[in-house]
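User: Predict the complex.
Assistant: Input components as received:
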Amino acid sequence: MNVNPPMIPPIPTPPGAPQESVVPNSPIADLSYRNYDGPLRPPIFRWWTVCRMSLRLLWKKPWFWGIAAICLFPYLIHAIFYYFAGSVTIQILAIQFPELADLPSFKFPLQMYSAFTGNINSIILLTIALLAGAGSTSIAADNQANALQVYLSKPIGKGDYLLGKWMCIFLSVFVVAAIPAISLYLFFLTVYATQGFLHDAPWLWLQTLAVTLLPAAFHASLLVGIAAWSRSPRMVTAIYAGLNFITYVMAPVLGRILSHVYHRDTWQNLLITHASLQGILDGLAQNIFHMPDVNLLFIRREPHLTPMPPLWPLVIASLVLMGISLAAARAKIHAVEVVKG
Amino acid sequence: MIVLEHASRWYGQVIGINDVSCRIMPGITALLGPNGAGKSTLIKLITGQLRPSTGTVTVLGEAPFANPRVFRRLGYCPELERGCDDMTGRYFVTLLAHMGGLPSASIPQRVSEVIEFVGMTENADRKIGGYSKGMRQRIKIAQGVVHDPDVLVLDEPLNGLDPIGRREVTGLLTGLADKGKCVVVSSHILYEVEHLTRNILLMNHGRLLAQGDIYTIRSLIDAHPHRIAIRSKHARALAIHLLNLPYVLSARLDAPDATQVEVETRSPDTFYSQFPDMVLEHGFDITSFESPDNNLESVFKYLVNESGTKATQ
Amino acid sequence: MPVATISGLTVRYGKKVAVNDLSVEVPEGCTGLLGPNGAGKTTLLKTLLGFLTPAAGSGQVLGLDVATEGMQIRQRIGLMPEVDCHIPGMNAVTFVAAAGELVGMPEADAMKRAHEVLEYAGLGEARYRNVETYSTGMKQRIKLAQALVHGPKLLFLDEPTNGLDPAGREEMLDLIRGISHGKGINVVVSSHLLPDIERICDKIIVMRQGQIAMQGDIAELRETHGTLVEVELRLSNPGFIEGLGKYGARVLHQSGSFYRLRFSEARADLGALLFTTARGCGAQIRGFRPALRSLEDIFLEVVES
């Protein structure tokens, strides 16, 4: 008993579409299960899928961008400050610290470095990292929800999964750190190009990029390591924030105690002052910008210029920490729990 | 042994159970109902974790809430599985034996007995964290019976057990019931409940829908007359004859060449006494006949769906 | 043509041998995987998914080698795990679409297909809510949906009715039956609930202590060729049994007024015989049928021998 289908013009099948008849044979549609015969991409770059999923979840939240916007302020203030009072400050500083006058390309890197290592900035970047790495997109949340059973039963490897999660934190922190910094750079470029900006600081753009990559990679690696071993996103937040805070407070205190005990200010003491998570990042930033520690906006009590900490111990420390975290994460990720017995 | 009289319990605005009155006697009683029916609330009231908002709950003659005298004679095997992963099975049962009020000297012996009773002697000294689901169930039962309670309440005790384990635990529970204990089992797996007991407590939306023997309940469900499915080569001819009988309400065939006819009647007894005579008289060849809805699953479906439709009207 | 083949498989966890020299062919259609706890079902499953490297032996699933082509296998099969699992922070649609993208579907296809599969699984408006707010029944459905989204040719279901109330269980079994019959999808169901297996599967594989104890067609295994009969009387009546005894019937099992009888040979006139005997000793028959061996009996026999 065939009923003629109603007179509708047939829909042209676009090329490459699945081979199914578009005009149905019967007026009642068949809603039972239908197979999928469409394209399936091979498992290359699967980490990008994981990353994209996490980023979508994270970047949809309005308060993420709200917090990120706060990062703009230190740079904005530095731009305004430099625009109105620029060289005056440098001259004042040059009087107080004659050694600074010897450094040829001092002004612009100083501004950039100072804006970057301002306290607000590092707190914001840490917050962003925590949101990305210890929130609902984190590996800890996945552990809590047994998401690995879903992930690893698909054609995706451990490495892809970890890289995707790492990339999510990395990109979030990097974007929030880099955009204001690059804006400041462009401001300097447009305003001071004729006054020798490019001549004075030819590598500033590279330094800026390097310095904004730093906290992104560092936080990403450590958070991935910690989150992989936890089932509770809140614990990860608490642990990482706690670690940052405690080491940041204790390290300078320790350094100062030691310098008083041994009555000298050696490079080892300086290193110990930087022996905190944030301290490593600050120290590396100092080295990249080739800066002693000068705080433009918040003047210290003693007119004391702390020199740069030595580079290689910092590099080794950061690489070791990152390496251990990533190895720990890789060791912990596995698909199905084995019940013994 | 367990008596509820007009017991209700709500959490803020949300109703847990509503005006439930029942008596649970020794033997196995199955507590059934869809998710959210109020079974957990009822269990919590009976095991003394909650007080009823109105009405009374009495277990072994006393109100069970925070009552050590009742707790000493009550055993509870909850559905939860987390929390004790670091202890060994033996330690866990010993701990609960102490809490159950057994005299300290007799505990090690009793714990070993009970562990053997549930078949966990080999694994008792391993950490619970490494147990499979089935093993956890057995240890839970062990801790529930270690102090030889008179009332035992089990929430989904057969969950995760393989068929062998299921048979063993069913045997355990039947054994306990035979000794005169009152065993209340809450389960979703109806065919297992049918093997355990015929006595049920069916709940939905916080109300008690039915209590008692499955078959008695079934015969009282008027809205759904008894269905009897008869298989025969002469299904159609049989159907015509059956419709001649006054108490047969309908006869249904599924296809033009059907080999099965399904009749409905409100007087199954009369049907069963007259049907054989009719068959032998006319020489019909009957392959089988049975009542497809005279079982727990149908009782459940009919009562729950009806209460569901009434609720949405 | 078998959907998966394993030959001589040996898998070890450290010193413990989980599976020893196992050979099995998983047939097409819907197969039940049965076995006591610890029999090696999970190990077999993980090997078929390409997660475990066997110490010895080989295997292939849908023509792909389990030791070297694990990724490709996982692209063509779907797994519905036993435990609750979901990706946090998402609603059902996003979750199922994400699962599809992880297999390699293009974004648009994944979204379209996610809706289709959720529709089939019976999730209506609820699909836009966060998965964390779902009831057990809904969580099971989306687990099934995420396994189906990429149109796999082979589906593994681990305890699909876990935690479901009776209504939910029926719906889930209907869903599974709808996929496995007539759509060309092969399904392997691992469950302890034998009536569920009876309802949806055509064949079974029984494992015991790391070996295959038995496999075969359910209908064939259960067939008793008319020699097994179940009779329910209104009241138990020993005279009835005696009367039948003359025709070669033996009681295998009795509970109350329900009897399971074995006849020495199948009787063509079973109905007439039972009615006549009942009339003769005043018993009232409330039902009788040629019985099949229950899957539970088959299982217990195999596993305990």
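Confidence is low (pLDDT under 50) at residues 295-302, 336-341 of chain A.
Let me know if you want any component modeled separately.
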